[in-house]
Each structure stands twice: as structure tokens, then as C-alpha cells.
Design a protein that fits this description.
Mean pLDDT: 86
Low-confidence stretches: 1-33
Strand content: under 5%
Largest sheet: 2 strands, antiparallel
Shape: elongated
Helix content: 55-70%
Structural class: mainly alpha
């Protein structure tokens, strides 16, 4: 049963009153957005089955992150994913908050190092750094990766993917950084960096110690332009 209450001599359904407030706050929050942000968030929320109150909460969140300097495109996919999977609004909002906290932490970390502004300017690299932190890669390791890429900042993300793969494969931190540094100084195209993992896997099958194989790779990198050429030199 809907509760009724008096207000100025008139009686209003409580749920209708709350809904009206939600709409008011929704449009108040949207007023702080740029047009593109407002349009993107409104369009996405229109596809949801969320109530006006829930939409208002999510919109207010995006207004807050917009003021904090977090680009809407770094968070909107999470909202779209939640809506597509019919995740309850509060769970989506909680996930968005965790995502924004990670992005803020990543931004602070990126800007501590030399060349950090260039990493931050690439929003995909900013998001990648947040993912690294969430995945358990230490701040020290990330700072070292940024430093290693200072002369080739466009290769930061490929380098990070390879680093994570090397560490998960079992290679130590120092040889991993050494190998990445050698690749960044080579003519190997960054999209081919992950091909090194195939070389390591082959070396393991041939019972070549990882450290020895890394030394072989580094010794011949300057002589080749592709992973395929490199393979002919090291085996």
C-alpha cells in the first residue's frame, strides 16, 4: 500500500514524490556535464530498466568523476556491460566506484615518473595501468616499465602485456626487464612482442634454460627485424 502524507494541505503519494526528486537531481547532476558526456550517459541509461532514483545516483557519480578529470569513455563501458548483463544498479555503481578509484590511483602513479604525462595522454595506457595495479603488479614494477618505455611511449602497452606474460610464465623480474629493454631497443614491431613467448615455450621443450635463452634472444635482436628471423638465430 502506498503511504500518503500531507504537504501544504495536499496529499501526495510518497513514491511519486521520491520519483520527482530523483528526476530533479538527475537533471541537476547533468547540468555539470559537457554535452558529449551528458549525451553518452543519458543514452546508455535509457537502455536500462533502472528507476529514476538509480539513474540519478549513477548520473551523479559520472558528474563527480567528470569533475575529477576521469574521461567518460574509461568508465562508460563498465556501465554498458552491467546494463547488458542486467546487473542490479547498485552493483554496477559499486563496480564503477572501484574502477574510478583505480584510475585515480593509476594517474597519481603515472605522473610520478619521467614521461608520465605522455602515458596519461593515451587513455588506453591510463586504463592499462589501472588494470596492472588491480592485477597485482607493484607500483615499483609499473614505474620501471614507464621508465623503460620513455623513448618509445607508444609501445608502453605492448611492453606491459609481455611483462605480465613473462612473469606468469616464471621468468624473474630482472631478466624480464632486461628482455623488454632489449626489445624496445630493437627493430621488432611492438605488435610482435608477444611472439617472444612462443620462443620461450619452444626453448623449454628443448630443455634450454630460460636465462640462457633470454641471453640468446638479446644477443641477436639487433640483427633481425622480425620474430621469425630471430627464431632462426637462437635455435
Amino acid at each position: 500500500m502506498i503511504r500518503l502524507f500531507a504537504a501544504g494541505g495536499r496529499r501526495f503519494p510518497q513514491l511519486a514524490f521520491i520519483g520527482g526528486l530523483a528526476v530533479f537531481f538527475l537533471f541537476t547532476a547533468l547540468a555539470v556535464f559537457g554535452q558529449n558526456v551528458e549525451s553518452a550517459v543519458s543514452k546508455t541509461l535509457s537502455k536500462s530498466g533502472y528507476s529514476d532514483t538509480q539513474k540519478a545516483s549513477i548520473t551523479a557519480f559520472f558528474a563527480e568523476t567528470d569533475r575529477a578529470g576521469i574521461p567518460v569513455e574509461l568508465l562508460l563501458p563498465k556501465l554498458e556491460e552491467g546494463i547488458a548483463k542486467r546487473v542490479p544498479a547498485q552493483r554496477v555503481l559499486d563496480a564503477l566506484k572501484r574502477e574510478s578509484e583505480g584510475l585515480l590511483k593509476a594517474r597519481a602513479l603515472i605522473l610520478r615518473g619521467e614521461g608520465g604525462e605522455r602515458v596519461l595522454a593515451d587513455r588506453a595506457s591510463w586504463a592499462r595501468t589501472a588494470n596492472l595495479l588491480a592485477g597485482g603488479i607493484s607500483e615499483t614494477e609499473i614505474e620501471a616499465l614507464i621508465l623503460a618505455c620513455r623513448s618509445r611511449m607508444g609501445d608502453y602497452r605492448p611492453a606491459t602485456y609481455l611483462y605480465v606474460a613473462l612473469r606468469e610464465w616464471g621468468l624473474g623480474r630482472e631478466p624480464s626487464f632486461s628482455l623488454i629493454g632489449a626489445l624496445l631497443s630493437s627493430s621488432i614491431y611492438p605488435d610482435s612482442f608477444m611472439g617472444v613467448m612462443d620462443l620461450l615455450a619452444t626453448g623449454r621443450r628443448r630443455r634450454i634454460p630460460p636465462e640462457e635463452l633470454v641471453q640468446r634472444i638479446e644477443a641477436h635482436l639487433k640483427q633481425v627485424k622480425t620474430i621469425e628471423e630471430l627464431e632462426k638465430w637462437i635455435y
